[in-house]
Specification:
By secondary structure, the chain is of the alpha/beta class. The chain folds into two domains: 9-60 and 86-136 and 263-304, Major capsid protein gp5 fold (2-Layer Sandwich); 141-261 and 309-317. Helix content is 22%, strand content 30%. It is built from six helices and 15 strands. The strands form three sheets. Strands 6, 7, 8, 9, 10, 11 and 15 form a seven-stranded mixed β-sheet that branches. Strands 1, 2, 5, 12, 13 and 14 form a six-stranded mixed β-sheet that branches. Strand 8 and strand 9 form a beta hairpin. Helix 1 packs parallel to helix 3. The longest helix is centred in the middle third of the chain and has 25 residues, at 113-137. The chain is flat and about 90 Å long. The two termini are 32 Å apart.
C-alpha cells in the first residue's frame, strides 16, 4: 500500500504463560502499522544492507556531463569528458520504546489497558519512523520564503503558503534537470493548516474553475496542478516561534521533492517492527511475586538520507490557525 515503510511484523514471545493474548496483540499492532496517514517515506529509494555487512550503506550518484559544444577537428581526438561520482552514506540505528504494568491492571481495570496500548504503540512506532524521514527532508539548503521574505526570522502572520512559491520551485527543479517523481508531477507535502490556506489561494480557485478534474489517486492527495501533487501529512515540519512579530509566529515548512531525492535503508531482516511482550514472572527471580509485565516495540535497523540536494526544497511560511 502506498505510504508504508514496507515493514513486516514479527513478535518476540516471552517464557511467561498466555500466548493466545500475544497473538491478538500482534494483529492489533499490524492493523495500526498499515495505516497510510504517515507518508514521508512514500517516494524514498529503499535499500537493504545484507546481514553481516555492517550498518552503513553507500548510495552512489553520477555527475552530470556538460554538453559537448566544440566542433570536432578532423584527425584530432578531443580531451574527452571526465567522469565524476559521489558517494552518499546512510547509517542505520535502533529505535524502540516500552511500557510497564503491574499485575493489578489485569484484574482491577475494566478497560483492556494492555491491548489498547499495544495498538497505540503501533501508532507510536509508525509515527517515529515517519518523523525520522521528515527531519532528513526538512534539513536541506534550498529554502523559499513566503511573500518574498528573505529569512525565516522575517516571516509574520499573513506570510501564507501560495502557489506562486510552488511554481518557483518547479522552475528551480526544471532548470537544474530534476525529473518529476510521480509520473509527470513533483510532490509537495503540506500540513492541514497549509491545505486550508491553499484552498483560499486565488490561483488554486482559478485552476479548479478551469476544469481541473484530475481526481486524487493516492491517500491524502489534495490536488494536482502546475505539475505538482499536493499530499497532506499530519506530521508536517514546524519551526516553533521562529517568525518575526509579537508574539513570534510558528513557521511551517511545505516540502517539495523530485525524483531520487532521498532514501531509506535497513539491514536485511532487521528493519521489521518487533512487538515484544514480557509477561508476569518472565523476569524470574527479579519478579518473584509475578507483579511486573511490559509491552514494547523495537526496530533493529533503520536510517534515512538525502540523496540529491537539488531535488529537495521547502517553502517556509506562516499558516492560518
Amino acid at each position: 500500500m502506498p505510504g508504508n515503510l514496507n515493514l513486516n511484523l514479527t513478535s518476540t514471545i516471552s517464557t511467561a504463560p498466555a500466548t493466545k493474548p500475544q497473538a491478538f496483540y500482534d494483529k492489533a499492532l499490524l492493523t495500526v502499522l498499515r495505516q497510510t496517514e504517515f507518508g514521508f517515506d512514500r517516494y524514498a529509494q529503499k535499500k537493504q544492507i545484507p546481514q553481516g555487512n555492517g550498518r552503513v550503506v553507500n548510495f552512489r550518484k553520477l555527475g552530470k556531463l556538460a554538453p559537448a559544444l566544440t566542433p570536432l577537428t578532423e584527425g584530432v581526438t578531443p580531451d574527452g569528458a571526465t567522469a565524476s561520482k559521489t558517494n552518499i552514506t546512510a547509517t542505520v540505528e535502533q529505535y524502540g520504546d516500552y511500557m510497564s504494568f503491574s499485575d493489578r491492571v489485569n484484574f482491577e481495570e475494566i478497560d483492556p489497558v494492555i491491548s489498547g496500548y499495544t495498538v497505540e504503540q503501533g501508532h507510536q512506532a509508525r509515527e517515529t519512523l515517519d518523523i525520522i524521514v521528515r527531519e532528513i527532508l526538512s534539513a536541506g539548503t534550498n529554502v523559499f520564503y513566503a511573500n518574498s521574505k528573505t529569512a525565516r526570522s522575517g516571516l509574520i502572520t499573513g506570510d501564507k503558503f501560495s502557489l506562486m512559491d510552488v511554481r518557483k520551485i518547479v522552475r528551480f527543479f526544471k532548470k537544474n534537470h530534476i525529473k518529476p517523481v510521480a509520473g509527470t508531477d513533483y510532490i509537495c507535502y503540506i500540513s492541514p493548516d497549509t491545505k486550508f490556506d491553499l484552498m483560499d489561494d486565488p490561483e488554486f480557485r482559478k485552476a479548479m474553475e478551469f476544469g481541473n478534474n484530475a481526481k486524487p489517486l493516492q491517500d491524502n492527495e489534495v490536488a494536482r496542478m502546475f505539475g505538482v501533487r499536493f499530499i497532506e501529512v499530519v506530521n508536517a515540519k514546524v519551526f516553533p516561534a521562529a517568525g518575526a512579530g509579537t508574539p513570534a509566529a510558528d513557521v511551517q515548512a511545505a516540502i517539495v521533492i523530485g525524483r531520487n531525492a532521498y532514501g531509506t535503508t535497513e539491514i536485511e531482516g532487521q528493519g521489521n517492527v518487533k512487538n515484544i511482550t514480557k509477561g508476569l514472572g518472565s523476569a524470574g527471580t527479579n519478579d518473584p511475586l509475578d507483579q511486573r509485565q511490559t509491552i514494547g516495540w523495537k526496530v533493529n535497523a533503520f536510517g534515512a538520507v538525502r540523496l540529491e540536494e537539488l531535488a529537495i526544497a521547502r517553502i517556509e511560511h506562516v499558516a492560518t490557525k
